[in-house]
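Last lecture ended with a question: if I hand you only a sequence, what can you say about the shape of the protein? Today we answer it with a concrete record. The protein is HAD family hydrolase. Below, first the input exactly as provided, then the predicted structure, then a couple of comments.
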Amino acid sequence: MMPTLTLRPAQAVLFDLDGTLLDSRTSHYRVYQHVFADLGIRFDHAVFTQHYSPNWYLLYERIGLPRDRWPEADQLWLHYYEQETPGPRTGAGQVLAAVRGSRRALGLVTSGERARVERDLDRLGWVALFDAVVCGGDAPRMKPHPDPLRLALSQLNLSPRAAVYVGDTIEDVQMGKAAGTATELIPLMILTASP
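The predicted structure:
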C-alpha cells in the first residue's frame, strides 16, 4: 500500500520534480555513467547511491571531480540527458490534478536546468498546471539552501507557513525546513486533500 499525503490547510503545494513527480533516478544514473566515463572517472551504482544529490555540484565534489571540469561535466550531462525520456512517477498526474482541483496554488522547485525541465513538463502535458516554477540557476544558491523555495513562494506571494513542500531527498527536507514550510518526504504518494 502506498502512503497517503493528507494536506494541512495550506494555500499552496510545491513539489520537487526529479524522483518526486518524475521517475528520473534510472535516467540520471545512466547519464552520470556516460558523463563520468567520458571524464575518466569510475562511477557505478554503489557510487551513485552513496553520493547522489539533487545538487549535482555536491555530487561532483563528493566523487572528486576537479572544479575546473564542472562546466564540461554540465555540458556532457545535458547532452546525454537529451536521449532520456523519464516518465511520471506512479500517481503523480493524479496528485497534481487533486492539488489543482483543490484550488491550491501549485509550484515546482527543482535543481534541474530550465530547458530540460520545460521539455519534460511539456512532454507530460504539465506546463499549465504550475503557478510557479523555479529551476536550477534561478536562485542565488541551490538546494539544500532555502533560496529556491523562497523564490517560488515570493512568485506565489505567499509566506512559508502557507505552503507545503514535497520532495524525495534529504536536501528537499533541509531546504523546506530552512525556508519555514511544512515539508513532506514522500517517495510515493496518493493525495487526499483536506477540506
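Comments.
1. Residues 188-195 have pLDDT under 50 and may be disordered.
2. The CA atoms of residues 12 and 36 lie 38 Å apart.
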